[in-house]
Amino acid sequence: MEAQEHEEYISAMAVDANGKLLLTASGDGTLGVFNIKRRRFELLSEPQNGDLTSVVLLKVGKKVACGSSEGTIYLFNWDGFGATSDRFALRAESVDCMVPITENIVCTGSLDGVIRAVNVLPNRVLGCVGQHTGEPIEQLAVAPGGRLLASCAHDQKVKFWDTSALAAIVVDDYRKKKKRGGPLRALSSKAAGGGQDFFADLRDEPEAAPGDSGDSD
After folding, report:
1. What PROSITE patterns does UniProt report for this protein, alphabetically (predicted)?
2. pTM of the prediction?
């Protein structure tokens, strides 16, 4: 079988739990849907800003999240792949790779070398899991159970991070107004290996208006 609907490279793929649909993220900014059982290409989403770099399933398969080279996470409803249902702009240069830790939380890797833990719906940046200081992160992988995260970057190192505490985090829809300019929270002492000078450049965006689910960090 061969499908050539994408105009650019395919950066990532994911399959649903039933092994029916293959989802593809592409450099042309679209999400592709290929029906494996029927052996046919179903559709392409509307193009988004920047390259789509990663794709994961969340919310027990009800949501699909795609990272982008512009630092935005795009969300799609299952069976509603034509257009995004929500988007979340991170305070990051890019979202080059992404892995789910729980049904609500993903870890993202970026050009700035920071691994961010992000809650999806409600959209929050929870903090920094780890970092390859100043080196773009190439790939992330999580062990079964979501207790250990591995990362590799241009520093030619593979690092391991304890993510067991993320499973206990519950994010409320209500969000306290934070002081503008607060640093990105380090979720462990090892995550803050670069010290306060490194995190000084990682600032929260201004608080979004009530009801806007695409608030930024």
Report:
1. WD_REPEATS_2 (PS50082)
2. 0.82
How far is the CA of 99 from the CAs of 3, 27, 50, 112, 209, in angstroms? Answer: 25, 19, 20, 17, 29
Place of tokens 């299952």: 78
**Of 213, 109, 198, which Cα lies nearest the Cα of 161?**
109
User: Taking Cα atoms as reference points, which of 137, 132, 164 lies closest to residue 148?
Assistant: 164
d(CA 106, CA 17): 18
User: What are the structure tokens assigned to 147, written together?
Assistant: 């207790």
Residue among 15, 16, 45, 18 nearest 29 (CA) = 45
Q: Looking at residue 176, what is its pLDDT?
A: 58
Distances (CA, A) of 189 to 128, 130, 138, 150: 10, 9, 23, 17
25 contact partners, CB below 8 Å, separation of at least 6: 10, 11, 12, 13, 31, 32, 52, 53, 54, 55, 66, 67
To which H or E segment does residue 96 belong?
none
| Token code pair at residue 158 | 């593979």
Q: Are 31 and 54 in contact (CB under 8 A)?
A: no
| Alpha-carbon gap, residue 207 to 214, rounded angstroms | 10
Token pair for residue 122?
């409600």
pLDDT per residue as tens digits for the range 59-79 = 999 999 999 999 999 999 998
| Distance from C-alpha of 39 to C-alpha of 11, rounded to nearest angstrom | 21
